[in-house]
Known about the structure:
The structure holds two protein chains of two kinds.
Chain A: E1 7-11, E2 15-20, E3 26-29, E4 32-34, E5 43-44, E6 58-60, E7 63-64, E8 67-68, H1 71-82, E9 96-100, H2 106-119, E10 124-129, H3 130-142, E11 146-152, E12 157-163, E13 166-167, E14 173-175, H4 179-193, H5 201-211, H6 218-226, E15 236-239, E16 250-252, E17 265-268, H7 271-274, H8 292-301, H9 308-312, E18 315-318, H10 327-338, E19 347-349, H11 356-365, H12 370-373, E20 375-376, H13 377-383, H14 385-391
Parallel strand pairs in A: 1-9, 9-10, 11-18, 18-19
Antiparallel strand pairs in A: 1-2, 2-3, 4-5, 4-6, 7-8, 10-20, 11-12, 12-13, 12-14, 15-16, 15-17
Chain B: H1 2-15, H2 20-33, H3 56-60, H4 72-78, H5 83-93, E1 125-126, E2 133-134, H6 137-146
One zinc ion binds at residues 116, 118-119, 121, 134-136, 139 of chain B.
Region (Disordered) (chain B): 50-70
GO molecular function (chain B): zinc ion binding
Keywords (chain B): Metal-binding, Zinc, Zinc-finger
Amino acid sequence: MSETSCYILDNGAYTVKVGLSSAEPKIxxxxxxxxxxxxRRPFIGSQIDECxxxxxxxxxxxxxxxxxxxxxxxxTVWDYIFSKECCPVNFNETALIITEPLYNFASIQEAMTxxxxxxYECQSxxxxxxxxxxxxxxxxxxxxxxxxxxDSGYSYTYIVPYIKGKKYREGIRRxxxxxxxxxxxxxxxxxxxxxxxMDETYVINQVKEDSCFVSQNFMGDMEIAKKKVSENTIxxxxxxxxYTTIRRGYLRDVVKPDEDLEQQxxxxxxxxxxxxxxxxxxSDVGIPQMGIPEAIIHSINSCPEENKENLLxxxxxxxxxxxxxxxxxxxYNEVRSMALDHFDVNVTLAENPITYPWEGGKLIFxxxxxxxxxxxxxxxEEEGKTxxxxxxxx
Amino acid sequence: MAARESGRVKEAEKRRILDEAARKRRARKAVEALxxxxxxxxxxxxxxxxxxxxxxxxxxxxxxxxxxxxxxxxYKMRFRKTFAQLVEEDAAFRPDPPNYLSAQAPxxxxxxxxxxxxxxxPSNYTCIPCGARYCSVRCLGTHxxxxxLKWTA
Lengths: 394, 153
Ligand SMILES: [Zn+2]
Ligand SMILES: [Zn+2]
């Protein structure tokens, strides 16, 4: 067994973060896509970069509601990832760290164990939650006792308190709002108000990424967004890609009609901040749940009294949604206002919110006890899948 | 006669009010739509793809492993379970909280906010027939012309 590097696969519902611990991670879409413009082939993972015209992309995803459901799709994407085309690996020589969702269902856990030992012939396997890797990463840097990990991803947002490196399960909270809900809601309102973009998930996801921000004063921004263009600091036009001269759209100031360059645009006002707002008020779209800051407080309040202070001091944010400008400040301000005055509040945005757990995998591989966290192929052959339930705390 | 009849239809339409069950159904459908992967048909649906023609990823090169790799289709059948089945199974596997269902964040203690179903700005009024929110006469007009009772869940 080579001990110089391991293979880390943070298997997200939207993107896979993958690579040898000795190299930089690659970010690969965890899906198969079909384009109207290219009928000879589907695009697997990063092959989408070869697609000239990404309008009307059709998505086939392995995950549903945050769980691995469509195994044929996942197997196809994994085969692509492990091939020379993407990020090759020899599992005979290299240990694998792979992430799974919190509370992953038992039969999916069994399937994971089986496919990696039998199909991919792994010698050493560590199945772990991405939040565990993120917490490990943070603790190694901060040397702290307790952490609240906030993972705001594609399918949902999880809030997970850790006490001395261990998940405190009674405190775990899930909000069923993630990047997918935000993009779909943006598609819905734009299609009703301006232009039918219901088929344009790929493009509207880019509109979201390029245009949206988290408001620090929601009702105040609503007032600004209502004003006429000359007095409105929020209104912008988004120039849509046409896949001849523009490959990726962009946000620009509203121009006078005579300066118009005949580009197809979307006019954005309150859409720019009412979309990320769903993370703070899921009830705005009829999802009867707390927003992130309130759920952080709810989570901490269910933890032992003596840990609350330390938890409030170590709130860590990562995941795609944390990239919205203003996200950290809004979480900080709201948690600060709800927490007791004599406690300090610290909210940290991970330095790279997408690959932070992957980087944690790199650190855990260097842990002197790393191989005791893993399960080996011999153990699997002797003791079977039940051992995996004892060893891995999913 | 025809004019009177259509007038009567219009009157009936005005008085039609969506009942509580229909409103709930509509709201649930709107939330479910936020989970959908695609809103259009597979653009390659008319092509005979998948099963017979090998996926090009497999055909390019043989894997370095000696063992024959099982197909994606095999694993689809082997691990076939729906989300609903898995949730049900989980209730037996982890019957006592904390578990997947208990981790769900509870409703907020802050009051719900209301936004115009047309323009998205804060709203003060409720449409009587369907319960949607609107902010102005103009938006109410758009709402009545486009949605309101036009589509039923
Ligand atoms: Zn309105
Ligand atoms: Zn109505």
